[in-house]
Every structure is written in C-alpha cells, then in structure tokens.
Amino acid sequence: MTHKYISPETNEKLYFDEANNCLKSQDGQESFAIKEGVPYFSDVSSFGEKETQRVFGAEWETFTEYDADNLEKMSYGMENFYTDKTVLEIGCGSGRHSRRLVNKFNAKHVEAIDLSDAVIVAKELNKGIDNINVANANVFELPFEDETFDIGFSLGVLMHTTNPKEAFNSMCKKVKKGGSAVIWVYAKTPRKYFMEFFRFFTKNSPTIIQKIIASLLSFLLWPLVLLSKKFGISLSNHFKEYAKYDYYVYKTDMYDRISAPLIAFFSEKEIQNWFEDEGFEEIEVTTYGDFFVRGVGKSKE
Questions:
Q1: DSSP 3-state assignment of 241?
Q2: Pairing between strand 175-186 and 149-155?
Q3: Fewest 10 Å CB contacts: which of 18, 57, 68, 118?
C-alpha cells in the first residue's frame, strides 16, 4: 500500500512520470523530483529549517548504524496500539522507528517523512519492507490528503521545528476522525536548560566542529556512564539512562544534543493543551524520567 501524494502547495493529485522520473500534476504545471527512489517535496526558506536540514542530514548520513530502540522504551502500555493501523511518521531520520512500527508493533503501513537527506538512508535501510514508504517533506506542507491515516506519530522531532505546536496541528490534520496522535517531546527540566548554555557555542558551528566536540565530550563522559553500567553508581539520570546503551549510541546522541539548531522544552500541561485545542479525547500525557513528555489522544469521530 502507498498513499497517493498530493501537491503540498495546491493539493492537486500527483502522478508518476516514468520518462522524467518525477511526480507531476495532471496539467504538468507542478513537478517533484524523485532521488534514489525517494520523492522530494520539501521547500525550506528559514535559517532554522535550513540548519535543521543540514544538521540532521549529516547525523543520519554519518551514524547509519545507530539503532537505539527508543520506540520500545516510550511505548509503555501501548503494546497493540499500532496493530493493523496506517501510520504517518513525522521526522523519520534513518528510519529505525518506521522499521519497528512494522516489524515489532505490527503496523499495517508507515508513510515516513523527513526534512533532510536522511530519507535516502531510511530508504536504503528499510529496503525490502514493502509497507514502509519514505518521502522528503516539510511537516508544515505535508503531501497527503487530510484525514488519511489511522495514527499520526512523531518521536523526538516536533521540538526541533520552527513552531512545534503548528507542526503538531499539521500532523493532526492528516489523521482520520476516530484516529490517534502520539508524540514525544523534550520535558522541561533544569538539566535540559543547563545544556542550552553550552549549546549556545555549538549549535551553529560547522558540522566537522560539531562532530569533533561530540566525540570529545563522549570520550570524557563515557567513564561516568560505565560507573552506572558496571557498579550502579549514577551521578544523574543522564548517566543511568545511557548505561542501557553502548558507546556508539552515546556518541550519536551527543552529536544530536549539541548540534540541533532548534530545541524547545514542554510541560505536561502544555502538551495536554495541544491535544485539547485540536479537539482530541481520551488524552493521556505522561513524563518519562526527566527526558520526554509523551502525549496520546484520540480524534473525535
């Protein structure tokens, strides 16, 4: 199954032009390139979006073996939630959550989008899985008709957009009546804000500098993770959490943390309001440690 694409600008249905390897409107006025099997719809103009595109593209093109199972960790109480459902994933990165949604949580089909060239990596890493489709698109201009999907899903992405609440609203427009939305965003905690002082110097640095700093910080802090891993001695929740993973995951996440140009933090009340403003019911908002706020809600029939 592949959901038919529409133009994000005019909402016109698009058709595959095999001769030119692109998607076109019926009148031929609009055309969207297909690169390495991935349709490209995104059109970014703001500095924040361009930097987000650069940073996360570089991350997932570099750390292609990163496969930390954040989805399993954040899906407490949702064992059968995705079974036989169509899912729109906002911000797929290298596609590891797309893969688990299908293989572990039995989703019927996943349409995964990302703003960056990480979509090429996602396409390659998920080749052979027919019920995953990948496109390069902007969350604010999604190439799908409204009320198309059973579930709108975004894990750790909306807080990196220029307007997280509007990004959430845009995703929700694509969810069917009676469907669901699931999001994870950074929680408001003192530790998160402390990191922002350091990020002031790193978030706009060249990619090579960001990678060097991430490698250096990971090397220096990893012994504290090992204290927690080997002896149960933990100086903070940060080290306790990463004791579950290996050094590669830690270094990848360090790059992610210091380089993301846009980051926002949210309380449970703020996320509750997002769902209420969209008219959702059966809303559940919880916090995982001092890391993430998870929001789940059902669209009214």
A1: helix
A2: parallel
A3: 18
Coil, helix or strand for 214? Answer: helix
One-letter amino acid of 3? H
Tell me the CA distances in angstroms from 95 to 43, 137, 267, one per residue in order: 21, 14, 27
The 3-state DSSP class for residue 274 equals helix
Strands 86-90, 109-114: parallel, antiparallel or unpaired by DSSP? Answer: parallel
- Tell me: the pLDDT tens digits for 107-120? 999 999 999 889 99
What would the two tokens of residue 152 be? 């709108």
DSSP 3-state assignment of 58? Answer: helix
Domains along the chain with CATH numbers: 66-187+266-299 (3.40.50.150), 204-259 (no CATH)
Integer Cα distance of 195 and 216 in angstroms: 16
Q: Exposed, middle or buried by CB within 10 Å (0-12, 13-18, 19+), for 69?
A: middle
pTM of the model: 0.88
What pLDDT is recorded for position 5?
A: 93
- Mean pLDDT across the chain: 90
Quick check: 137 and 111 in contact, CB under 8 A?
no
- Please name the residue that has the structure tokens 């750390």: 63
- Looking at 58-62, 79-83, 219-223, which range is the least confident one? 58-62
Burial class (CB in 10 A: 0-12, 13-18, 19+), 32: buried
Number of residues written out for the chain? 301
CA atoms of 282 and 99, how far apart (whole Å): 27
